[in-house]
Amino acid sequence: MGVEQKLKPLLVSAETIIELAIIDPSRYGPLIHANIPDYAEILLKIFLEDTGSKLPDSSRPNFKQLIEEVEKNLPEVDIEPFKTIKQYFLAIRDDFRNPLHHKEYVQGFLTTKAIALECLLQFDGLLGLLFPKLPASFQSDLNYFSYVKFIRMIYWEDKGKEDHELYRRAMKALEKIEKGDKYKCPPGYDTGRIFSVRNLFKQDDETFSVVVLGYRNGLPKKIISILSESGSALKTKDILGRLRDYDAFSGIQQKEVEACLQHIQNKKQSDGKMIVIIGGAYSLSQNPAV
Questions:
Q1: Radius of gyration over alpha carbons of the chain, in Å?
Q2: How far is 104 from 4, CA to CA, in rounded Å?
């Protein structure tokens, strides 16, 4: 049996837990925290089987034994990131083997939204570390990967580290899908959100960008490149004209350029520069005050 065949039933089962997090991560926090560590343990076993490693000499090896065996078989480059994930799940195993048995503590700590979502993302981090080359066809067959994209966006938005405008527009797109579907569900069970997340976050990066942001995925880099090569500030129509010189953007409309500029202006780029607007024209500046 191939590794994808082994992973598929596990991830399909994990989808059910993530759907609860999409509906209400705080409400279902104890359930998330009780089940995800068990899924992580199964991941470790699948990895050891896939690498041909011998399982620890025990009829039922514990989590710590599996961790130690996995570390022996990981590429050196993955050891450090694995240690962080390892410590996370070992802490859960030691302190909250079954959080449902610790209701007084669970209610005060474990059911917080951030902790429930972090547990899911730690599991996904383990999946990506142990199985970094899962085929795109395998990923597209499952809802798991679209769910995780949504969970990651929510988690980092709550941490204040997400692109807030991207988050705002994604939420708006989800609401639009839900209104179009007119899916009815009982109060307190936002099942319609699950279907809208599948619909939106299963799109490829290009389609997602067009639907959510109103412009194609590669446009920001191309605009930055044009402004970088220009010796002076450019107005929207000038940027539009230069974009149309490229085959990939030959049919681009001003509306798409304006949507992109609105999103990326006044945001620091990786090289420290920012797109600023002065006198109705756009330019790159190291200092937003200039």
A1: 23
A2: 39
Q: What is the pLDDT of residues 224-274, one digit of tens each?
A: 999 989 878 999 999 999 999 999 898 899 999 999 999 888 887 766 778
Q: 219-285: what CATH class?
A: mainly alpha
pLDDT at 110: 46
| CA–CA distance, 25 with 32 (Å, rounded to integer) | 8
Q: Which residues of the chain have pLDDT under 70?
A: 1, 56-59, 94-111, 182-190, 270-271, 286-290
Tokens of 161: 């580290």
Question: For residue 43, which phi and psi values (nearest 5 degrees)?
Answer: -60, -45
**Residue whose structure tokens are 């547990």:** 119
- Adjacent-strand bridge partners of 281: 278
pLDDT of residue 250: 86
Please, are residues 261 and 213 in contact by the beta-carbon 8 Å criterion? no
268: three-class secondary structure by DSSP? strand
Phi, psi of 107 (to 5 degrees): -65, -30
For residues 186 and 202, what is the distance between their CA atoms, to the nearest angstrom?
A: 25
pLDDT (0 to 100) of residue 1: 64
Closest to 51 (Cα-Cα) out of 26, 28, 23, 71: 71
- Please report, for the chain, the start and end positions of each structural domain, with discontinuous segments joined by +: 3-162, 163-213, 219-285
Whole-number Å distance between alpha carbons of 32 and 18: 8
Whether residue 89 contacts residue 33, with contact meaning beta carbons closer than 8 Å, is answered with: no
Distance between CA atoms of 34 and 205, rounded to whole angstroms?
33
Q: What is the dihedral of CA 125, 129, 131, 133, to 10 degrees?
A: 100
Looking at the DSSP assignment, which residues form a beta bridge with residue 278? Answer: 281
